[in-house]
């Protein structure tokens, strides 16, 4: 069977420099080939591999194959979230450089568009200048006439069309000639060529580019200012629709006055409003065909009423796969959707995502062999089977929910675990009415799931990450899950015990429990906040505006339901007894303390740590607590090694650090000799002086000196400096090995010189010079009207929704290096589209999430191809602390149980009010073996 587009076999995804195994590369190549094979017969495929398994490179292999084999050199379009706008082109650079022969790579080039206007310009380019891959950001098709010169020229073309063949416009034209620069926000053009507007409005748009080049407004390499596709679409507009543009033009002020700017802004706003409808109509009339759309984060299409989904389907036709009519209807021949969490959707939502495949070009000569009728029929059958599977799974869920602890006693035997009990039930055929119901329901669910899997398999490809490592560390665990009290001793406790409440915390949590019981129908967000930190509880009580906080992490936790009078009384009492008299009280919160102490223990062994939390105030409290503990620990370790008081140790450590800046110091020379020897192994690496300075600045920090340098009461010797480079960390890797890994990454794995320079610039600029952060990095917390300052260390950083995007990027780059920061406290803004895996294998989920997929997304920041776990053979440690006998433990048990049910009952929604949580927490947990056996198996068999 001839494929739609063949896989380009010179593509080689196994490149040692990428840091992935040959088995992973083989899986990626076979997956890309399978996608192209399926696209010969069907309109689209969803690639839904788990987080961090390299979907990007699979998609790029498919995109390159299509672009290279397309006879008309039409571009492949990749739509990506704005947060990944720069990441995809960087990965494409790596792909071209490492996975393609030079001659093949030379045939591929890419461009990026943030608006539909830029996208149309790229489509309009002649073949010799046309990009093979166009990266288009989500929402770009609705940003057609933005500010800027590209949108300005298109607005001018629309104005020209509105003026076409209208009489008695001489006064209006004279006004426009004078005010057009202000109206279009292109004053720079008005100042350079005030007569240009007249010349352009009197000429065809096909001549505009030559005019702009002639007058020095554009240069030869630039595209036509108005794409031909848009010009053709403008010709189809009726005068009635263009009348709205005319009304806006007549509002343009004729002369300057005190109210000129206000009147101009009104006219500009009216023009923009009138153009919105015209722009949408314009997109509907676009007439071009492209071979492939690759859509990242495709689960955003689950809601057909969103503007993004409407690109592919009319809201009025959301249930009819044959009447797709969005702006992108009929534009693409095939579609490839990427998402790591397809089954967080309900099965109806998953089918709605699949419905978008119906908007491809069914009339062209390259239409799928299956045909539109067969496509519609197959989705109807899929819906039916998914309905039956979900109904069976829900019945099994309900039947399983009837089990109690007493049922784990079968006959005279008491089983220690549910897995043992289940094996006995299935092997020994122990019969009781409830067992028979559970078994019957299980068998029916398995039957229905397999039928649904058969219908789903053509449309979804999903690989699960192996739970054990391969290669030289074959058989070792990839992850180590450590819930509850395990955060203290780093050992898994079979009974999964929670953290104990301290005596000081017993009364607040008792009051919170009473308040929860008083409002069983409400979600006890105050109890969730209290379990996170004392400050988080106060935050939920004060109901601060999310806009003021500049962050949306707490939005879903804001308390909106009314509470009873009894509940309010308990909460008032709780607020009064909270032990927040001092900073030490905040750090003494049972879970804050456990998290901070675990970070400290991990830091002692030279390991980095990521801490995820929901609440803004919790993130700040954690940063204060961890900074305080690290500060004290640095002084204590320094005092033990230097044999002096902690205060004296701090002074001596700073003096030792200054010796690294002394050009004549033997310590500086010894350090530089070690660094120079390292850099000699990477002769092609630029910015060597910067790198040398960065490594030296990191080594001289008190944080490094007290852990890895054999200090004595006499200070620091040259021999000790040499030893410091060879002391192993908790992962069994010495500083020398870690630095070699980073330098190898910079030289051989960075996709572009710009990416390499970005890493080097950021790590060289990271603050390491003082044990205490700069003055502008001190936090000011307002509690009960009292202002206080908190000690913060530069190696402990906080990222939340209020953090500027450029700061987030800077911290991501520096955390992905061996240097500062060593501890990253993060909210959900760092839970997707971020790589934190190169030098970190420890994560704490300080706050859980009701959605198990969100927890997996967080962990996926560390568990990716090329992660540290694959280089050292030591597992990723996943801590999930919770407080025993509180709402926190109930939430943990509910989330862990529902995690197993997640892929069985797709898109399950459950109540999170106090009564429902209590009931769910009492359930017998579903054995992991059952969950795995029932889940869909949609991998490509290698």
Features:
40 helices, alpha/beta, 942 residues, six-stranded parallel sheet
Can you offer a commentary on this structure?
The chain has 942 residues and is of the alpha/beta class. The chain is built from 40 helices and 17 strands. Among the domains are: 16-108 and 299-369, no CATH class; 171-284, no CATH class; 379-463 and 903-942, no CATH class; 503-585, no CATH class. The radius of gyration is 31 Å and the shape is globular. The longest helix is centred in the middle third of the chain and has 30 residues, at 371-400. The two termini are 20 Å apart. Helix 20 (503-518) packs antiparallel against helix 24 (565-577), helix 30 (688-699) runs parallel beside helix 34 (753-765) and helix 34 packs across helix 35 (805-815). Residues 313-325, 544-552, 554-560 and 773-788 have low confidence and may be disordered. A 7-stranded parallel sheet has the order 3-4-2-5-6-1-9, with helices on both faces.
Compact description:
With 942 residues, this protein is α/β, with parallel strands linked by helices.
Strand percentage: 5-15%
Low-confidence stretches: 313-325, 544-552, 554-560, 773-788
Helix content: 40-55%
User: What would you call the structural class?
Assistant: alpha/beta
Give the N-to-C terminal Cα separation: 20 Å
Name the strands of the widest sheet in spatial order: 3-4-2-5-6-1-9
**Oligomeric state as shown:** single chain
Number of helices: 40
What's the shape? globular
| Radius of gyration, in angstroms, nearest whole number | 31 Å
Average pLDDT: 85
How would you sum up the major sheet?
A: 7 strands, parallel
């Amino acid at each position: 069977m001839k494929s739609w587009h063949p896989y380009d076999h010179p593509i080689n995804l196994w490149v040692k420099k990428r840091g992935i195994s040959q088995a992973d590369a083989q899986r990626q190549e076979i997956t890309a080939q399978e996608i192209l094979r399926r696209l010969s017969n069907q309109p689209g495929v969803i690639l839904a591999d788990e987080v961090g398994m390299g979907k990007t490179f699979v998609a790029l292999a498919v995109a390159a194959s299509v672009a290279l084999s397309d006879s008309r050199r039409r571009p492949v379009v990749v739509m990506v979230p704005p947060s990944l706008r720069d990441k995809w082109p960087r990965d494409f650079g790596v792909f071209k450089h490492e996975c393609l022969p030079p001659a093949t790579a030379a045939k591929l080039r890419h461009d990026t568009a943030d608006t539909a206007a830029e996208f149309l310009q790229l489509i309009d380019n002649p073949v010799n200048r046309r990009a093979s891959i166009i990266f288009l950001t989500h929402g770009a098709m609705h940003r057609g006439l933005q500010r800027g010169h590209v949108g300005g020229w298109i607005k001018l073309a629309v104005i020209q069309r509105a003026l076409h063949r209208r009489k008695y416009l001489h006064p209006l034209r004279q006004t426009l000639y004078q005010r057009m620069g202000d109206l279009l926000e292109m004053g720079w053009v008005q100042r350079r060529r005030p007569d240009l507007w007249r010349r352009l409005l009197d000429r065809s748009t096909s001549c505009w580019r030559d005019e702009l080049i002639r007058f020095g407004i554009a240069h030869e390499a630039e595209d036509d200012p108005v794409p031909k596709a848009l010009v053709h679409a403008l010709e189809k507009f009726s005068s009635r629709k263009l009348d709205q543009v005319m009304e806006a033009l007549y509002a343009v002020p004729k002369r300057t006055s005190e109210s000129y700017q206000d009147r101009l802004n009104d006219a500009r706003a009216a023009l923009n409003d009138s153009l919105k409808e015209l722009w949408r109509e314009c997109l509907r009339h676009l007439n071009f065909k492209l071979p492939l759309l690759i859509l990242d984060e495709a689960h955003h299409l689950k809601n057909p009423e969103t503007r993004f989904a409407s690109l592919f389907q009319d809201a009025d036709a959301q249930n009819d796969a044959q009447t797709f009519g969005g702006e992108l209807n009929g534009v693409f021949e095939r579609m490839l959707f990427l998402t790591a969490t397809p089954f967080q959707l309900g099965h109806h939502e998953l089918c709605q995502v699949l419905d978008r495949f119906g908007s491809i070009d069914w009339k062209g000569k390259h239409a799928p062999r299956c045909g539109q009728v067969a496509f519609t029929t197959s989705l109807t059958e899929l819906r039916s089977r998914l309905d039956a599977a979900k109904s069976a799974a829900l019945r099994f869920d309900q039947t399983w929910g009837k089990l109690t602890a007493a049922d784990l006693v079968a006959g005279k035997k008491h089983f220690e675990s549910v897995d043992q009990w289940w094996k006995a039930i299935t092997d020994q055929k122990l019969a009781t009415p409830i067992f028979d119901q559970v078994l019957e329901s299980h068998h029916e669910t398995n039957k229905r799931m397999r039928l649904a899997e058969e219908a789903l398999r053509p449309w979804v490809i999903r690989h699960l990450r192996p739970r054990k490592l391969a290669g030289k560390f074959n058989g070792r665990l990839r992850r180590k899950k450590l819930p509850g009290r395990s955060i203290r001793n780093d050992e898994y406790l079979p009974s999964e015990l929670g953290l104990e409440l301290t005596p000081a915390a017993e009364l607040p949590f008792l009051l919170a429990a009473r308040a929860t019981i008083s409002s069983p129908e409400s979600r006890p967000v105050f109890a969730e906040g209290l379990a996170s930190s004392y400050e988080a509880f106060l935050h939920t009580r004060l109901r601060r505006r999310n806009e003021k906080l500049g962050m949306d992490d707490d939005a879903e936790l804001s308390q909106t339901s009314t509470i009873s009078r009894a509940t309010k009384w308990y909460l008032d009492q709780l607020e009064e007894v909270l032990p927040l008299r001092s900073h030490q009280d905040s750090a003494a919160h049972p879970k804050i303390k456990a998290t901070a102490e675990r970070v400290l223990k991990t830091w002692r062994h030279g390991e980095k740590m990521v801490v995820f939390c929901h609440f803004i105030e919790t993130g700040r409290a954690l940063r204060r607590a961890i900074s305080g503990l690290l500060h004290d620990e640095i002084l204590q370790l320094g005092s033990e090694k230097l044999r002096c008081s902690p205060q004296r140790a701090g002074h001596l450590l700073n003096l030792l650090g200054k010796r690294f800046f002394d050009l004549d110091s033997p310590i500086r020379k010894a350090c530089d000799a070690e660094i120079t020897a390292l850099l000699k192994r990477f002769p092609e690496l630029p910015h060597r002086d910067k790198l040398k300075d960065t490594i030296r600045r990191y080594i001289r920090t008190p944080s490094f000196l007290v852990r890895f340098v054999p200090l004595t009461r006499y200070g620091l010797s040259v021999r000790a400096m040499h030893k410091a480079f060879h002391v192993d960390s908790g992962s069994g890797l010495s500083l020398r090995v870690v630095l070699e890994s980073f330098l190898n990454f910079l030289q051989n794995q960075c996709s572009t010189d710009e990416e390499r320079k970005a890493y080097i610039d950021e790590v060289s600029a990271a603050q390491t010079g003082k044990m205490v952060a700069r003055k502008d990095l001190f936090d000011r917390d307002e509690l009960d009207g009292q202002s206080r300052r908190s000690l913060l260390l530069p190696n402990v950083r906080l990222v939340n929704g209020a953090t500027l995007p450029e700061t987030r990027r800077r911290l991501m780059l520096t955390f992905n290096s061996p240097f500062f920061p060593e501890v990253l406290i993060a909210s959900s803004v760092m839970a997707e589209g971020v790589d934190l895996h190169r030098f970190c294998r420890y994560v704490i989920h300080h706050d859980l999430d009701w959605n198990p997929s969100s927890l997996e997304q967080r962990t996926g920041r560390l568990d990716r191809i090329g992660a540290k776990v694959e280089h050292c053979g030591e597992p990723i440690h996943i801590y999930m602390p919770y407080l025993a006998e509180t709402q926190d433990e109930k939430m943990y048990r509910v989330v862990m149980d529902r995690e197993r049910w997640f892929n069985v009952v797709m898109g399950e929604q459950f109540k999170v009010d106090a009564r429902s949580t209590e009931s769910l927490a009492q359930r017998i947990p579903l054995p992991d073996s059952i969950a795995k056996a029932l889940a869909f198996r949609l991998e490509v068999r290698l």
